[in-house]
Automatic annotation (TrEMBL):
It comes from the Bacteria. Its cofactor is FAD. This is Putrescine oxidase. Pfam families: Amino_oxidase. It comes from Hoyosella subflava (strain DSM 45089 / JCM 17490 / NBRC 109087 / DQS3-9A1). PANTHER family: AMINE OXIDASE (PTHR43563), AMINE OXIDASE [FLAVIN-CONTAINING] B (PTHR43563:SF1).
């Protein structure tokens, strides 16, 4: 079958928040663009879907106060936000299974352990303040910090195993979705720097502040509406033919299932673990091949449970629960704006997700709901809608929430991750500085990459 051909100044691979932000910026500057997306929808790792009559945020959803690029874009697109429900007390399930109600910032893990958690958070927070989120590899101790895992670093600084596990819960399970032995202390400190403070990552009322009324995918849908026919869906890119580093201004041809596009520049706006899904002719330089092999996705099951009413509120509970030893380590009230029903969202991260996937679907559902019930009681066992977001099986994502480097990778390859390879540019929230791994980072790096390209088109 012969596919249509077209020409554009810039060809963008990926119609998530990164690619669409880049396309929007380029088009405003007068450049022609074509956005090619493998999925049959826009939004990438944001997806607001109707599941059994319930509207669920299958992918990324929250906005924190420091994410000003995203907040500005939401306002510009005419979208509205609302605050996450957080009234009432929270629940902490201690290792022995005791269920404790609490309020305030300190988790009731025992006086000594809580004090040690706060000390460790302060230590990492001070380290984060020394790090430039746009260049963490420039820290004087970058090589040292990047060669030791977060779990080892925590053990070096504290003999309180419970305190170390609690810190790892928030960062390893809640953010990078990899075991704390699988990424470095530098990666952890950088994560804090990218959020404005490591302490912000420990403050769920900050990092999980607001949602978009019509869902986070609305951000991408609105941008795609502006771009119209310049967005081509359901068309995986198979190859990029370019002139090589010796001929950076040679025409570039991008071949996909539904269109072939010739242009001057290309933005590969997909996660780094998918770069190798595309054939590059000639091949990318050795440095890029090596770099991309040291970036991998984490894994988490995002669980959605919808109930006839938000029953936890009747007991003066916020719906926020922490259970470091449980299958579901975190739970939050995720009720939609104006909805009379109640929705809980829970997270089963990294190795616990591995364990959950060894169960049948029915067994996994039961185990997950029982874990939530350990915190919120028997009513949690009976949702009217239940759904598991499993991005690990998504052909064009293959994990969640995002990629990060293995031990030693950040300081070794980070300095080159944002550099173009001749006319080829790479951009995603996975390699953003501020807003790293968040939709805000996607907007920032998409816009910034477009701004880099614009002068090259005019020369």
């Amino acid at each position: 079958m012969t596919v249509p051909r077209r020409e554009s100044d810039v060809i963008i691979i990926g119609a998530g928040a990164t690619g669409l932000s880049a396309a929007r910026t380029l088009k405003k500057a007068g450049a022609s663009v074509t956005v090619i997306e493998a999925r049959d929808r826009v939004g990438g790792r944001t997806w607001t879907a109707d599941i059994d009559g319930a509207t669920l945020e299958v992918g990324g959803q929250w906005i924190s106060p420091d994410q000003t690029a995203l907040l500005d874009l939401v306002g510009e697109l005419g979208l509205e936000t609302f605050s996450r429900y957080r009234e009432g007390e929270n629940i902490f399930v201690r290792p022995d299974g005791e269920r404790v109600r609490f309020s305030g910032d300190d988790i009731p893990a025992g006086e000594a352990t809580t004090a040690e958690v706060n000390r460790l958070v302060a230590l990492i927070d001070e380290l984060s303040k020394e790090i430039d989120p746009e260049a963490p590899w420039q820290h004087p101790r970058a090589a040292e910090l990047d060669s030791v895992s977060l779990s080892s670093w925590l053990a070096q600084h504290s003999g309180d195993e419970a305190a170390c596990e609690t810190v790892a819960l928030f960062l390893a399970g809640g953010m990078l979705t990899k075991p704390a032995h699988a990424f470095s202390a530098l990666q952890a400190a950088f994560m804090g720097a990218s959020a404005g403070s490591f302490a912000h990552l420990f403050d769920e009322d900050f990092i999980l502040d607001k949602r978009v009324v019509t869902g986070m995918q609305s951000v991408s849908l609105r941008m795609a509406e502006e771009l119209g026919n310049d967005v081509i869906l359901d068309s995986p890119v198979r190859s990029i033919t370019w002139g090589g580093l010796d001929h950076p201004d040679a025409p570039i041809t991008v071949e996909s299932d539904r269109v072939t596009v010739t242009g001057k520049r290309v933005i590969v706006a997909v996660p780094p673990n998918l770069y190798s899904r595309i054939s590059y002719n000639p091949p990318l330089p050795r440095r890029q091949h090596q770099m991309h092999q040291h970036q991998s996705m984490g894994l988490v099951i995002k669980v959605h449970a919808v109930y006839d009413t938000p029953f936890w509120r009747e007991d003066s509970l916020s719906g926020t629960c922490f259970n470091p030893k449980g299958l579901v380590q975190e739970v939050y009230d995720n009720t939609n704006h104006g909805d009379t029903r109640g929705t809980l969202v829970g997270f089963v991260p990294d190795v616990k997700a591995d364990q959950a996937f060894t169960l049948s679907a029915d067994e996994r559902r039961q185990a997950i709901l029982e874990s939530i019930a350990d915190a919120l009681g028997e009513k949690a066992l009976h949702p009217v809608v239940y759904y598991e977001s499993d991005w690990g099986t998504e052909e064009w994502t293959r994990g969640a929430y995002a990629t990060s480097y293995d031990l030693g990778g950040l300081h070794r390859y980070g300095p080159d991750q944002n550099d173009p390879v001749g006319p080829l540019y790479f951009a995603s929230s996975d390699i953003a500085g501020a807003g790293f791994q968040h939709v805000d980072g996607a907007v920032r790096i998409g816009t910034r990459t477009a701004q880099q390209i614009i002068p090259t088109l005019q020369s």
